[in-house]
Structures are given as structure tokens and as C-alpha cells.
Amino acid sequence: MKKMNLKNYRILFFSVFALILTFCTQKQTIPEKSVKDVMDNAISHIYSTMDSKAIESIDQEKAMKLFDENELKVLATRHWVFNTNVPVVVSIMRSTRQKIMPFWLESSGFEKTGLTMKNEQNTYEVWQKSFDKGTVGLGINGFENFSYHYFVSVAPQNPKDKVELSGFIPENQIVSILDNGKTIYQDWTELVTMEVPEEMKGQILLTTIRGRGKESHLIGAFRTTAYPSSAVPDQVMLTWSSDPSTTMDIQWRTNTTVETGSVKYRIRESADEKTVQAEKFLMEDREVMNDRFIHRFTAKLRDLMPGTEYEYLISPATDWTTAESFTTAGDNDSFSFVWFGDTHQKTAFGELHDKAEAAFPETAFYTISGDMVDYGLYRDEWDNFFENSKNVINKKPLMNVPGNHDNRLGLGAKMFRDLFSYPTNGPDGVPKEQTYSFTYKNTLFLMLDATSSTEAQTHWIEQQLASSSATWKIAIFHFSPYNFEEPYPDIQEAWVPLFDKYHVDLVLGGHLHYYMRSNPMKAGKVVDSHSEGTTYIISIAIPARHNDIGDEPYAAVRYKEGQFFQHFKIEGNELKYTAFDFDENIVDTFKIQK
Ligand SMILES: [Fe+2]
Ligand SMILES: [Fe+2]
Fold first, then answer.
1. Where are the domains of the chain?
2. At 487, is the pLDDT very low, low, confident or very high (cuts 50, 70, 90)?
3. Which residue from 200, 380, 503, 518 has the least number of CB within 10 angstroms?
């Protein structure tokens, strides 16, 4: 064997050094910056250099030119990241319906195989690439917000290796095993894999959500709010996050030039004024061209007198003749409230809301059972929503629950939580304020988030019902378990037995855009009286029309066309219900006597 001389040692040393350096360099090829950093910067750059017409004309070619090489590297490697303990083959399943190929897919070494798989909506091409052990970084789905996001499977290069994946970005990766019938999108669990190639079955499956396209949305992404913020407080709204007899939360919006906010309040016409400072937070919708950032304020009025009328002014207002007023819950058992089905940011709802308030000025508060807007993370839609109801919700609290449109494509209901100050007494496993309860006089309101885990709320619902001494118990949530189109077996199995056991009087929901009031029901069957069963009602607050609403043997009253509001008058042991159409004709009424 030839001995190595010093020169050769040097060459070996430098080769090893170079190898280590290369290795280190490879390790560092995943940039530190996040996709969000890069997109935030790009959008700031867009706003400072382009007019709205140019922004709206952004296409794939123009989008690509917005980024330098390093930024493109972030977009190509930081969207979906994980570490593998052994060398692997990563498969990317890309919908053939996606018109624009992710820009990084081919250039980063993924190769299209002849394999495909399906779900009910798509055929997916399978693209593959081998990775050494270490970090795997995958890129964005595109700039066009295509909602059938690619998904991923991972297999060891050596079949004897056991793959362990860790360090996921985004966190909370849901991992399963690839086979037919597997969930791909956590926000649409029924849309499962079909025709999975035999050789891919058993691979590690990384699921996703359809909303992830929004993270890099540039093509057709930008919107304009019809109601931009200003230095003058607007979107003034009352809610409760605590006891309706002694507290009130007042919320409003300004532009970002206003740094502080406060509310002056007093018992009507008394001399004793109090001031409470508001909490402020910055809210961003980076795609709203004319109003990207706003300030939202929440002032929490506490230790109020029950059954008392207060008036209030939001800073900088000082003229009491312009004050708005509200009344805290008193200590009797008489009150009324109004409930609406879906409103979808339509002006037709604003008219209905004004009519309801004019018809029933004594109404203590309003509630909407979800789908207030179409896209819950588009702030311009919430601006429309607040504009529609601005003459009512500055005097009467608005107590809502999220619908699927307020919590879309797996992205969560952050704007709902940010915009409404509600009780934080909900269960673990559901973001606070999306599920909560409050008691108004002798009535318990269970405000449930049907768009979140049913299971996570079940025990909490039982606790709430078991510990309440309220005369009346009313549950409000978006997906009503009995309807003509899609019954919700999980809700029927988990929640309905509790409504039966603790005798919930009314269950109010929306989503189906029609009107249905059931006969009293117990265990899924019609019973003889309200004292034995629960009445399920579905309504819609904007114009709606169905051609066919099938048969519903449990229904007492149904309308397949119309727009409605519902008034509830509670006086001790009597509840009187009346539903009105847009022209304020009575379309349904009943009474429950306890
Ligand atoms: Fe809806
Ligand atoms: Fe809905």
C-alpha cells in the first residue's frame, strides 16, 4: 500500500475540511427567514411602489419579480419543514387542477412519477425527491391561493429504516399513514384519499389545511374596504365578557394614528362621571389595500349597578348630548332578545337589524348564530358587517358564535376572537371566546362553536348545564343537528343527549339558509309537549331561496324562501316566541309555559 506523504495529508485535510464546510453549508441552505417575513416585506414593497391598478394586475410573472434570490429560496424551502432521522424519499401530491406549477418544484429536484392518487375533487400527480437525513424544506403552494394545497408522504430510502420526523414547520403537524380513505385536509375531513398506489401505502402521510395557500397569496389577493378607518372612533359595539347585570364591554376602531382610547360613562344624567381606559391592539389584514392596519379598542366597564341606564362617550368626545346609552340587566325575570341566522355581511341584514330594533326597542341584546361574513379573515367584510349594524350595536350587546364562513379552510377564527370581547369561560380544546356561556336573568345561553371539535365541548356543556339553576336553557350554534340537508351525527350523538338530559328548551342554528322550527324533540323523536322535549330552530337573516327542502317529519313550520328575525319574550316561567319576515309579518309563533 502506498504511504501518504505530507502533501497528501494536506490534501486529505483540506478535502475533509472542504467536505465539512460543504456539509455545514448544506445544513444552512434552509434560510432563517420565514415565508411570512418575506411576504410581509413584499407586500409593504408593493404598497410603496405600485398603485392599486398595478397591484390588481399582479400575475405569476410579476409576482416572481418581486423577490430576490434569497427571498425565493425562503419561499422554496420554508413553507413546510421537518427533520428526518434517516434518508427518505419525499412525495408531493399536486392536484392536476392547479394551473400554475409551484415555481420551485422542478428546479429543486422533484421529479414527476407516473403515479397518481385521487380524492372526490381532484387527481393528484406524485412528484418525488430523495433527501439525506436532516432537514427537508418544501416551498409554497403558489401565489394564486389555490385551495387544494399539495400534500406530502415520506418513505425511508432503505426499507429497513424506521423514519422519525420532527421539528415541523408549521407546528402541530398531523401525521398519519397513507392508505385509501385517509384525511388529507384537516378542514375537510371527509375528502379522503382514493386509488392510492400499492407501493405508496404505509408511507407517512403529512396532512394539511386548504387555507395554507393564503400564506403566499398575491395574484388576485388584494381587496379594498368600503369603510376605511379614520382618527374618529367607529364600529362602536357593545358585548359582554362578564356579568350582564354589572358589566359592559365597549369596543371600537380607529386608524393607527390614535394610540390611546377611553370611555367616559355615568348613570344617565347623573353628575358622577367615571373614566375607564381601553385596551388597544393592532389588527392587520395585509391584503386590504386602503386600510392594512387598524387599532381596535376594548373598554371594560365594571361594577355597574344592575337594572340601570348608563350613558357613555368614547374619547375624544365630551358632549353628553351626543352620548349613547345602554341598560344593565335588572333583578327581575322579564326580558326579551332577538336572534338572527346567517348574515353574510349583506346590507339586507342591516335593514332587518334596524327593523328589529325599531319594532322591539326593549330588546336586551342580539345574537347571531354564525356566518356573519363570507371570509372570516377578510377584515373588509367585517367592516361591511359593522356598517350594517352600526345603529343598533352601539346600544345593545351583540353576542355571536362563529359559523364555517367565519372560520374557513382550517385557518381558524382569529378575527372573530379579535373583534368580539366575549367570556373566556369556554372549554380547553376550543379557542377562548369561540365557545362560552353567559346567564342573562333567568336564562342560560350556551354559545357553542360548531366549527370546532364537538368532542372538546361535550364535557363542558354538561358541566354548564348541570351547574346552572336557570329557568330557561338555550343553546346557540351554527350547525343545527336536525335539518333537511346534512344532519350532524356527531352533534346528535354527543350533544343532543345532554340537551335531553338537562332539558335545554331551545336550540338555535343557521347554515342551511332556510327556516325550520321543529316540534319538541327528545332522543331524535317528536314528543308531545315542550315540557318533554327541545325545540330546534334554523333561520336565515338575508334573502334566501331553496327550490326543494325535502321532507322533515319532525318540522312544525318551514319556509324555503325568505329572510327572518326572531323575537323571544321571557317573563318568568313563560317564553313567547315570534318569527317575522322582512315585512314584519308574523310567520311563526309559539309559547312555552313552565
Ligand atoms: Fe351561511
Ligand atoms: Fe354556514
1. 32-216, 225-330, 332-593
2. confident
3. 503
